[in-house]
Every structure is written in C-alpha cells, then in structure tokens.
Amino acid sequence: MADFMADPDLKDRFLNVLKGKAVDKVPALSVTQTGTLELMGKSGAAWPEANFNADKMADLALAAHKFAGLEAVRYPFCLTVLSEAMGCSINQGRRDVQPFPRTRPFAEDAESLELPSDLTDRGRIPLLVDVTSTLRKRVGEEVPLIAGIEGPASLASRLLGTYNFLTWVMKKPELIRRCLEVTGTACSEYSAVLSEAGADAVCIVDGIAGPDMLDPKHLASLIKPEYEHFYRVGKGMKLIHICGNSTSILKMLSECGFNGISIEEKVTDLPAAKKLIGKKVSLIGNLSSSGVLLTGTCEEVKNEAKKCLEGGINILAPGCGIAPRTPLANLRALVDARDEFYNK
Which segments of the chain does DSSP mark as H helices, in order? Predict the structure, then answer.
C-alpha cells in the first residue's frame, strides 16, 4: 500500500504522453538524477550512503516527488551500477559528488570482454531491483517510476577507457562493434529486471554517443543497432538522454523505437527538433541544469520553463542531471511554471 497520497493522474499522464495520446497538461518531472543537498537534508538520506543502501536510496528518490513536486520518482543517482557489475572498481564519491569508476578493467584486453552469465546477480543490480519493488509499494500505482542506467556506449567507454573507445571506434570498429554487442545486451538484461520489478520506464544515459563526442556516422553503424535491440527487449517505456547538441542525430534516434528522447538546452530550436523526431516520439527537456536551475531565480526558471512549453516540449524536465546544489525552490518553480502556463 502506498505510504502517502498521490495524484492518480500522474502515471496515466506520463504514459499517455509517451504513447502519443492527448493529455490535459504536460508532465513536469526529471528523467535524469534528482539528488540535491536540500533533499538529502529533508529526507535524512544522503550520498554516498544513498547510492549503496536500498532504504536510503528509496528515501532520497521519493524526496524529489514529495518535497519538490516532480511528477515521477527517478532513481538511482549515479551511472555506475552496470559499470560495477561488469568489473569496474567504483569510487563512492561524497555528499556532493556522485560515484565514478576508478578502473578500466578491459583497457588492455578488450577481446576478453564478455557478458557475465550471472550479470543480474552482480554488484548493486539486486539492490536496485529491491529499490524498485520498495518504491512501487511506497507510491502505489499512481506515480511513475523511472530507472536510469548507463547506455551501451557509455558502459563500453568505462570498461575500455574513454580514449580507447573513441580511438578504436575509428581504428578498430569491428572490435568496438563486438564490445557494444556485449554492453548493449547488458543494458537490455538490466532494463528487463528493473521493468519486471515495477519500473514504468527505463532511461539510458549515453552522453558519449552524442555528436559533441562521436561522429554521427559511427552512431549509425555501431550504436544504433544496440538501441534498437534495447527497445525490443522487456516491457515498459524506453527513454534515452543524450548530452550536448543532439539536433543532428534526433531523427536517427527517433528511428530506434524510443518512446521519449531527452535533450539538453543546447538544442535551441524545439519546433525543429519536434519535426525531426515526428509525432510518435516525445521530446523531453530542456531547462539548463547547470545554468538557470542551479544559479537562476525562481522567476528566471519559470520564464525558461514557459519557453520550453511554448516550443512544444512534451515532458518538461531538466536538460541533464540536476546539480546537487540546485535550490529546492527552483525545482518547485519548474512545476509551478507548468501549472501557470496551463492556468493562464
């Protein structure tokens, strides 16, 4: 049974938007990380413990919904769960720094990269399954749950090393293709167990695949097939977040089957972006997380949020992971802006 009352329309609105159906107003939420220092204080759950303890992780994840009014519960707060399960040693970070990989286990022997037969029993994957089940019980069926995971390119870059990955994409494409098949399958298997445990959507975050880092032709030939496979495996909604100015690859991403594509503020022409992805894919974003949300006033947040809504955004959200020092008032202003936009 849910342990607090929720708006019964939240989940229906979220799912209907992603299915291309009409809604009374666009959802206001985050598909990227939501842990902030103020929310840590209010929930009594802080990093680094909240990245490794199931109860603390659930408490902090709920805080963004309970105290900021964001209309979904998004978890976890780091992108190291699959990296750890596949062999990376993890630095646990600190109260205002997310965990990050310390090692590149396949940098010297990429040919030996294989999918562990017990992948979903490794590292924190069982913990995240437990967190998913716990959150489902605590919010009931009224609030959408969004699980974030590393994308196949980001996971491969961590296992091989970023320099190796970007270099081998050009010099050893067949090796990278095989590695991406492994990491893509890992993403799909992890996503499937999260969906079975109760996640309504899984969002892969694959920043290194964006055009700021990777030539779109390599995305098309090497990574797109893994995105298409990811979409086909398991149930639930499938989302993707790409960093940087993703305008040049939006059409390609829309062909992979994703229900929603999350974009940064560097994508400045929202009507053009919507035209590129078509009517079957929802556009998510794109308030600047490191800009107006972190350093702006509430009025500035509202003004930028309303510009996103005027541009036709389908889900109003931060354009990237929320910075830990983001004021709680600014997160509330995001939701308030959506309400004011529809009440005008």
Answer: 9-18, 37-43, 54-66, 81-85, 125-139, 152-160, 162-171, 173-197, 216-218, 224-232, 250-254, 270-277, 292-295, 298-310, 328-343
CB-side exposure of 223: number of CA atoms within 13 Å?
29
The full DSSP string for 117-147 is TTGGGSTTHHHHHHHHHHHHHHHTTSS-EEE
* Residue at token pair 């930028």: 304
Q: How high is the mean pLDDT of the chain?
A: 96
Segment 3-33, tens digit of pLDDT = 654 566 899 999 999 999 999 999 999 999 9
Q: How far apart are CA 19 and CA 219, in angstroms?
A: 26
Q: Quick one: DSSP state of residue 323?
A: P
Rounded CA separation 201/187 (Å): 13
Model confidence at 2, pLDDT cuts 50, 70, 90, reads low
Structural Rg of the chain based on CA atoms: 19
Torsion of CA 71, 251, 186, 164, to 10 degrees: -120
pLDDT tens readout for residues 215-274: 999 999 999 999 999 998 878 999 999 999 999 999 999 999 999 999 999 999 999 999
Q: What percent of the chain has pLDDT over 70?
A: 98
Q: Are 243 and 212 in contact (CB under 8 A)?
A: yes
φ/ψ bin of 242: left (φ > 0), alpha (ψ from -120 to 50), beta (otherwise):
beta
